[in-house]
Amino acid sequence: MRQRRAVRRMLCQVCGADTLEQAPERQLFVLKDVGRPVEEGELTTAAPVCPPCALIAVEHCPHLRKHVAAWVERPLPWGVAGIPYDRHTLLPIPGDDLTKVAYGDPARHWLVATRQVLSLNRCTAVFADTGYLLPTGGVVGSRRPLPREAVTT
């Protein structure tokens, strides 16, 4: 529920702040490194992060120790991700990862959706050495502590 709310409302996945208020023209997405920069049309279940929280995320989240990032102007709803079920046996289809299905795909009727999927459009891939984790002034102030709900949920 938290992921879907953050993606739907473009809330920072760490602190819950509205990233549209902070940067209405684009949002920062930090994703696990898969050996290439974030590409146009990339599909993700990740919510955006605000720059100060990006520092916290890459420092404390093992999933993001190796990461890529992009400023995205048009993150668009694409579909859902979840566990697919066989329409004849009604049993889950084995797999190691969540299956992504577009909203218009009939397969969505046989999926127990757990996450919303975004398509990242008008992306500008950025790298740590370009200062993407820094706020507009280029200087990081005191870090915000992690909110209690981010640590406990």
Question: Care to give the gist of this entry?
Answer:
The protein is α+β, with helices and mostly antiparallel strands and 153 residues long.
Could you name the key traits of this structure?
4 helices, 5 strands, globular, alpha+beta, 153 residues
Characterise the protein shown here:
The protein is 18% helix and 31% strand. The protein has four helices and five strands. The protein has helices at residues 2-9, 19-22, 51-60, 148-152; strands spanning 27-32, 42-44, 67-84, 99-102, 111-126. Strands 1, 2, 3, 4 and 5 form a five-stranded antiparallel β-sheet that branches. The longest helix has 10 residues, at 51-60. The chain starts with a helix and ends with a helix.
Distance between the termini: 11 Å
Structural class: alpha+beta
Average pLDDT, rounded to a whole number, is: 83
**Rg on CA atoms, Å:** 17 Å
Order of helices and strands: HHEEHEEEH
What is the count of helical runs?
4
Report on the biggest sheet: 5 strands, antiparallel
Give helix % range. Answer: 10-25%
Q: What would you call the shape? A: globular
The protein's oligomeric status is single chain
Uncertain segments:
134-153
Counted beta strands: 5
Query: What percent strand?
Result: 25-35%
